From TrEMBL:
The keyword Oxidoreductase applies. This is cytokinin dehydrogenase. It catalyses: N(6)-dimethylallyladenine + A + H2O = 3-methyl-2-butenal + adenine + AH2. Its cofactor is FAD. The lineage of its organism: Eukaryota, Viridiplantae, Streptophyta, Embryophyta, Tracheophyta. The keyword Flavoprotein applies. PANTHER family: CYTOKININ DEHYDROGENASE, GULONOLACTONE OXIDASE. Belongs to the oxygen-dependent FAD-linked oxidoreductase family. It comes from the Eukaryota. Its EC number is 1.5.99.12. It is an enzyme of class 1 (oxidoreductase). It comes from Lupinus angustifolius.
């Protein structure tokens, strides 16, 4: 939001009393705000600001702008950025998590076609609130314990993005505090330049404080199989046939490399033969296919699934199915995160990169990156996921 080039940085002790009361100088708090999930960037702020309202954020920004050398302000939600988006040297980290306290329980308000959500709220809480009304956001991020403002400042993608686009394509309206300290409501129609700058803007064009997210009817169950290849066919199934296609498609790479592969989906008794397959081929390509349905349409699911996978180039004996609730499916990554946390693997560097690769170069990417770099050079890769995307989404 601002840069500070002065060799003598601003001191929190200079802040007006009403702001100083919300500035934390606690060493442990500063330490926690000095790194993010990536553990690649490390920057030490002078203070952490704990707002209880949008007015507090406005006052902080206007105060910074009043100084000869404004200090940097870095909004931070759950701290899951990987390249220092929520960090600042000699500035102030804005802890967005306290915002919910002043909304008096109104931070998630569900309507017929949309939900108004405080930017500090977690997606898992948005899901649970909307499911009570038989509704759901259309597009997701895989890990549900991220803040709404955090993923909307990036993109928000997962296996549903081929149908609905990323999360930033399903936002109807935003409340944003600008770098001038103005609270602006923006949408594709009103203040559209700010709206499109902030979505995916990495926090550089304003601070999202509230979002209006589009909703649709929520299914109750999710049935998914894992197999290899034909992602493009699966995501174009809606247009090519009368049969309802997949609701979720993601490709996973199982590599014969450390650290241990994520095999939490597969039945335990099948792990030896899966590991044997990976050891034999070095790389195994699998597809996760999701079918969402309601209990009253359960009788058609197996038939639709059979039509979807007919003719796909996978090993029939390596097709696995699991039937779980829609909420469990959307929150499935929680188990893996808790496993990593319990084994001390969260507090290590997490280099992470999202790439959009055109269809014309995906084969080159496979040969040049997966085979020639990852496999041949024995580079550990904890998670490689392919999300097929329709260009028009």
């Amino acid at each position: 939001m601002a840069t500070n080039k002065d060799s003598n940085p601003w001191s929190p002790l200079q802040a007006p009393k009403e702001l100083a009361q919300k500035l934390s100088l606690d060493p442990q708090t500063l330490l926690l705000a000095s790194s993010d999930f990536g553990f690649i960037e490390n920057k030490t702020p002078l203070a952490v600001f704990e707002p209880s309202s949008e007015s507090d954020i406005i006052d902080l920004i206007k105060y910074s702008n009043s100084l000869p050398n404004p200090f940097t302000i870095a909004p931070r939600g759950q701290g899951h950025s990987t390249h220092g988006q929520g960090l600042t040297n000699d500035g102030v980290v804005l802890n967005m998590n306290g915002l919910g306290d002043f909304r008096n329980g109104s931070e998630i308000v569900v309507y017929d076609e949309y939900v108004d959500v405080g930017a500090e709220q977690l997606w898992i809480d948005v899901l649970r609130a909307t499911l009570k009304h038989g509704l759901t956001p259309l597009s997701w991020t895989d890990y549900m314990y991220l803040s709404v403002g955090g993923t909307l400042s990036n993109a928000g993608i997962n296996g549903t993005s081929f149908r609905f686009g990323p999360q930033i394509s399903n936002v109807l309206q935003l409340d944003v505090v600008t770098g001038k300290g103005d609270l602006v409501t923006c949408s594709p129609v009103n203040n559209s330049e700010l709206f499109y700058a902030v979505l995916g803007g990495l926090g550089q064009f304003g601070i999202i404080t509230k979002a209006r997210i589009a909703l649709g009817p929520a299914p109750t169950r999710a049935n998914f199989s894992e197999f290899t290849k034909d992602q493009e066919y699966l995501i174009s199934f809606h247009e090519k046939t009368e049969t309802r296609g997949a609701d979720h498609v993601a490709g996973y790479i199982l590599a014969n490399l450390p650290p241990p592969r994520d095999v939490s989906f597969y039945p335990e008794q099948d792990l030896p033969r899966i590991n044997s397959l990976v050891s034999k081929h070095g790389l195994v390509y699998s597809i996760e296919l999701g079918k969402f349905y309601d209990t009253n349409s359960q009788s058609h699911i197996e038939e639709e699934l059979a039509k979807l996978i007919k003719g796909l180039k996978f090993i029939p004996t390596f097709a696995f199915e699991k039937d779980i609730s829609y909420e469990e499916f959307q929150n499935r990554l929680r188990v893996d995160i808790e496993f990593l946390r319990s084994n001390g693997l969260l507090n290590v560097p997490h280099p992470w990169l999202d790439l959009f690769v055109p269809r014309s170069r995906i084969s080159d990417f496979n040969e040049g990156v997966l085979k020639d770099i990852v496999l041949k050079q024995n580079i550990p890769s904890a998670s490689i996921i392919f999300y097929p995307m329709n260009h028009n989404k």
